Amino acid sequence: MEQKRKMVSVLFMLFSILFCVCLITANVLETKQIQVGAISLTGGLIVFPVSYIINDCVCEVWGYRKARLLIWLGFLMNFFFVSLGALCDWIPGASYWTNDAGFHAIFGLAPRIAAASFIAFLVGSFVNAYVMSRMKIRDGGRHFSSRAIWSTVLGESADSLIFFPLALSGIVPTVELFKLMIWQVLLKTVYEIIVLPITICVVKALKDHEGEDVYDEGISYNVLKIFNL
Known about the structure:
This protein is mainly alpha-helical. It has helices at residues 2-5, 10-29, 48-62, 64-90, 100-107, 111-138, 144-168, 174-194, 196-210; strands at 33-36, 39-42.
């Protein structure tokens, strides 16, 4: 039983791959500003909330310890991608290369923005996983919809409260910064609610297939115990 707990399934591996792809894709899409009605947003909004949905599914089915491994894996893969992009952006282009400005716009992430993004992701993701885990124990496994929504609200709030001040303070007026934070949390929560029926079906299918429905009784929530599965 102890050996089984320390193993990961093929489905968990596939969810981990999708999680990392979503994070890396969000980094690229964040470089485009989009307009939805009167609201200005970044393209990353299209895919970034999916990472929170995957986090919810993993925490619900396999528990906080597997979610912790997933979060750190996503962080490391994202850091690897951003680092390689920055390195390639720094290396001088060939004499016939004429797209330096376009490449830099996508991969030349400012150190301040990158640091803010990494810190915000870690805090927001761990808040999301912790809330999911504790609410599941409190509710005896009932009310999945409620904990999926509340974990997103709290996780996205933590993410926005860290990212926007660290990344844009002094650049964007304080009032506009506050509006950006509110819109990000609101729209990502709405995103979660819209796809909630799909999330519920996915979670049910995963539990049936995996024979898993973990309750995190008596575990350590220390974010650094990465390999304590």
